[in-house]
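Working notes for the structural subgroup meeting. M.R. asked for a predicted model of this chain before we commit to crystallization trials. I am recording the input and output together here so anyone reviewing the notebook later can reproduce the run.

Input as submitted:
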Amino acid sequence: MEGIFSGIKLNYERYGQGEPFILLHGNGEDNSIFTELISELKNDYTVYAIDSRCHGKSQSAPLHYDLMAEDVKCFIEDLGLNKPNLYGFSDGGIVGIVLAAKYPNLLGTLVSSGANVTPKGLKWYVRAFFKVQNLFKPSPFLELMLKEPNLTESDLNAITVPTLILCGSADMVPYKHSEYIARSIPNATLKVLKGENHGSYVINSPKLYPIIKSYFK
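Returned structure, recorded in token form:
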């Protein structure tokens, strides 16, 4: 399916019935990474798996987290979704945090995994690798991660929805940064997944659904 939201053509998949649940993928991916998760979530929710701008089958456009958040805001409003739950992975998790900070009454629940709120929230050697990659082969996807996001503690303090922050023990986002995010969001919960890296429990993995289900219980 596709539609125009905030002036951008976005591709999305819709499955199941029940209260709305939005899924946002990471940098350079598309909604197909959520095949395993969707197969479970669709039994209890209406799932909307979106291809972010410049990703998958969605339209190419300027790439900034604020603009991606506006896309999702318009998606929610145009489809008339009432306080949807949102799960975002990596860049999708950042977009979810931006959205919840800017529009505190828009979401019902936020689950964000592998997200950072400043470029320095990535491990130094990950940033160094991205810089070298971008030097030899400039990419708007790498530029995005090297320059954004730039969320403050006050931004995080503004989030009022129930929030679960997930990270792997071997994530490219250090534990201390994930802990800072969770501590700065009022009443947020932090769950560290032992032995998991940035996306090992997310990308077409059966491990993610039980984690989300446990939180929603």
